[in-house]
Amino acid sequence: MRAIRVQKWGGPEVLQLEAKVPIPTPGDNEVLLKVHATGVNPVDTYIRSGNYARLPSLPYSPGSDAAGVVEAVGKDVKNFKKGDRAYSVRSVSGAYAEYATSEALYTGHLAGKLSFSQGAALGVPYYTAYRALMQKGKARPGETVLIHGASGAVGMSAVQIARAQGLRVLGTAGTPEGLKLVKSLGASDVFNHREEGYIANIVAATGGEGPNIILEMLSNANLQKDLEMIKFQGRIVVIGCRGAIEINPRLLMGKESQVLGIMLAASTPDEWREMHALLEAGGETGWVQPHVGKEYKLEDVAKAHNDVINCAGACGKLVLTV
Questions:
Q1: Are 213 and 235 spatial neighbours (Cβ–Cβ below 8 Å)?
Q2: Known SUPFAM superfamilies for this protein (predicted)?
Q3: Are 46 and 52 in contact (CB under 8 A)?
Q4: Spatial distance between the Cα atoms of 173 and 182, rounded to a whole number of angstroms
């Protein structure tokens, strides 16, 4: 099969397309997918460069989010069969390939209403957003959530989940197109984070109280501002970070607020089953609508890695078609 392989840590140039990679054999609790599309996530670039807490052994195939058709299942897999449409959230063999394995626990059923490219946009973005908002942020209907970077893949997923759970959504983006997209997904108010005074406008939109919850995609730039504007006893959930930041802990004390970290891989089996139940139902009923920003051929993976980190304004999920 064709697959992208990484032989050494480095920039996008280390992503090499190989034509004769063996098709993986699923383990007892695994599913083998014939991949039609695979998602590109920022974390894929961190791992490829060698700058991540948990690194695979070299050589490896990148990627966790794949969507396609089940080709085979292990002997202990009961909830999937050959021919099922499915998507993976954590691939075992690597999703940047024509075939990929994943544990059944980290695999979901893909609704017929969604394309394979949309299925490839489900995994990390939607599951991260749900874990951050509901499992860690303990969001409740009627609360207000501020979603930084709401036009990115995780951000858009969070907007849809928050609205489906009865929350009021405030979203930030950096381009007019991104702001329009976030608004169309159900945000009540949107703010351009490149404009002066946008923090004051967010606080004003909450009647001066601040949001109950903040989903933070770039904590090294925004965490101090988040602490200043969060509501009394509010929760800030850190989803992304690219460096260090100095904060004033007195703000935590005075507001009795919380800063929470999230790592999707730390989810328990029960939490995975909870996420599957909600998001599979969302796909079937129609409120889960992944937005694919751009599609790339498998051989153009280096450009996709460059774009997912360096694009001027996030507008959806980047997907490789296989």
A1: yes
A2: GroES-like, NAD(P)-binding Rossmann-fold domains
A3: yes
A4: 8
Residue 8 token pair: 């050494």
Q: What is the DSSP string of 120-146?
A: HTTHHHHHHHHIIIIIIS---TT-EEE
Q: Is the pLDDT of residue 311 over 90?
A: no
Phi, psi of 208 (to 5 degrees): 85, -5
Closest of 97, 111, 86 to residue 31, by C-alpha: 86
The band of 271, judged by pLDDT with boundaries at 50, 70 and 90, is: very high
The pLDDT of residue 313 is 62
pLDDT over threshold 80, residue 237: yes
pLDDT tier at 243, thresholds 50, 70, 90: confident
Closest CA to 311 of 174, 191, 181: 174
Strand partners, 100: 33
Helix (H) or strand (E) holding 237: strand 235-238
What are the pLDDT digits (tens) for 134-159? 999 999 999 999 999 999 889 999 99
Q: What is the DSSP letter of 311?
A: -
Return the biggest CA–CA distance within the chain: 60
For residue 52, which phi and psi values (nearest 5 degrees)?
A: -150, 155
Token digits of residue 296: 């790339």
Q: What is the pLDDT of residue 223?
A: 94
Sorted by sequence, the CB contacts under 8 Å of residue 173 that are 6+ apart come out as: 149, 150, 151, 155, 179, 181, 182, 190, 191, 192, 193, 313, 314
Q: Is there a contact between 86 and 34 (Cβ–Cβ < 8 Å)?
A: no
* pLDDT band with cut points at 50, 70 and 90 for residue 312: low
Cβ atoms 200, 218 nearer than 8 A: no
| Residue type present at position 271 | E
Residues 6+ apart with CB under 8 A from 180: none
- Please report, for residues 131, 133, 223, 306, the alpha-carbon distance to residue 220 in angstroms, rounded to integers and kept in the order given: 21, 20, 6, 21
Q: Which of 88-102, 230-244, 307-321 has the lowest mean pLDDT?
A: 307-321
